[in-house]
Amino acid sequence: MKLGELQKLIEKLKQYELPEWIDDISSWLESLNSTQIDNFLKLDTELSDIFKDKKSPLVNLQLLNTKHYLKDIELLNNADSIEVFESLHGVVLNTNSINSIHHRNDVQLIADANTPIHATALAACATSQASLTSEYHQSDMQIISSSDTVVKAKQLSRVAITSASLLSDYHIQDMDLISKAATEHKLEYLTRLATNTESLTHSHHQEDMSLLAGETSPEKTEILCYVATSQTSLTEIYHYADMNLISKCSNNEIAGYLGSAATRAISLESPYHLDDMKLISKASSPDEAYFLATVATDAYSLENSYHNKDMKLISRASSDQLRPLAITACSSHSLYSGFHQQDMELISSALSSVQAECLGNVACSTDSLDSKHHTKDMHLIASQTEDYKIQALGKVAINRSSLESSDHSFDMLLISKANNEHTTNSLAQIACDETHLGTTQHTNDMLQIFNEQGFTQNEILDQILVCARTYYDGDENREVAGKILKIGRKKENNNNK
Fold it and tell me: pTM higher than 0.85 for the full model?
C-alpha cells in the first residue's frame, strides 16, 4: 500500500467516523487488497440517519472485496424504513449471499419490496444456503416479491427455504398453490403440508395439496392437513380413500371423527378399516359418528368377530341407544361372554334412553354376566315400559349379593309386577340388602311391601301365578317357580277360608 493511499484511507475512516466499528484498525488496513482499497476510496455518500447507527457494512472486508460494494451501500442508504434497512443489512453481511451469483438481484428486490414484511421474507430466502444453491431461487424470490399479502409472502418464504421441498418433485406446484390461496387459514395449512418431510416423501403429496387447496371449510382444511402429515396414515393403503371421504364429508364434526380414525394404527391395521370409515362418513349426526369412531378404534372390538355387526347396529340406532351400544361393543366382559350379540340386540330395541342405559349397564356387568340370571334379567328389563321400574330392576340385576342368593329371580319378578314407583323402589332396596337374603324373613319383607299396593287376594294370586308360568316356561330355576306356587297356594287357601 502506498503512503498516499494510506493517507486517503485514514481520512475516509475519519470522515465517516468508522474507527469505532473496527476492532483493530492496523490489522484492517494491512489486510486490504486493491479491490477493497478502490471500493472504500470511491465511497462518497451522505449517510442516512438509519445508516449512521449501523455502519458495519462500510468496513466489512468481505463486502469490500466484491463488485457490488458501492451498489449495496447505496441501497442501504436509500432504504425507506428501518425494517427494509435491517433486511438489507443482514443480506449484505451474509457470507452465503455475498458469494452468490444471485446477490445483486436479491438485494434489489428487497430494496424494492412492497412492504417491510415482504423485505423480511425476501431476505430470509436471500440468505438461505438451501435456496441459493437450488434451481428455484430466482423464481421463488419473484413469487415472494409479487405476493399480494404479507402473510402470503411469509408463508412462501418458509417453503422457499425448506430443503425437503426444494429437493422434492413438488416445489414449483406447491409454491404456485400457496401463491393462489385465498385465506390466511388455508395459507397456513398448505404451507405446513408443503414443508412436511413425511408428506413430501410420499406419492400422495400432490393429491393432498390439491384437496387442501380446494377445501372451503377452515375446519376441514385443518383435519385434511392433520391426516396428510400423519406418518401412520401415509404408510397405509387407505390414505387416498380416507382423505377423499373426509373431503366429501359435509359435516365438520363428522369429518373430525373420520380424521381421528384415519390416523389410528389400530384401525388402519384391521380388515374393517374402510368399511368402518364409510359408516362413520354416513352417520346421521356427530354423536353417531363419535360412537362409531370409538368402536372403530377399540382394540377389544377390532379383535372380535362381532365388530361388523356391532358397527351396523350402532349405525342404525336411535340417539338414545348410541352410548350404551358403543360401551357394550367395546366391553371385553361382554365381548367374551356368551351373551354379547343378544344383549346388543336388546339394547338396540330399547324404547327409551333409561332402558338403553340400564340394559347397557347390565350387559357390561361382570357380576351379571357370571350369573345364571343374566339372560332372564335382560329380557325382563327389556319388557318394561316405566323408567322407574327399569331403573329398579337394573339396580338389582347387577347387585352381587342378590345375584348370589336364591331370592334373586323371585325378587326381580315381584319388582316387575309392582304398580307404583314407591313400592318398586322399596322392593329394590330390600332385594339389594344382604341382611336377610336367602331367609324366610327376606321373602316376608318383600311380600309385605308388595301387599301394601292394595291388591285383592285374587289379584295377588293372579300376579304370582303369572310369575310362576313365566318361570316354568323354559327356565331351569324350578325351585323359584315352586316357591312362587307355594306362596300362591297359601294365598288361595287363605282366600277360601
Answer: no
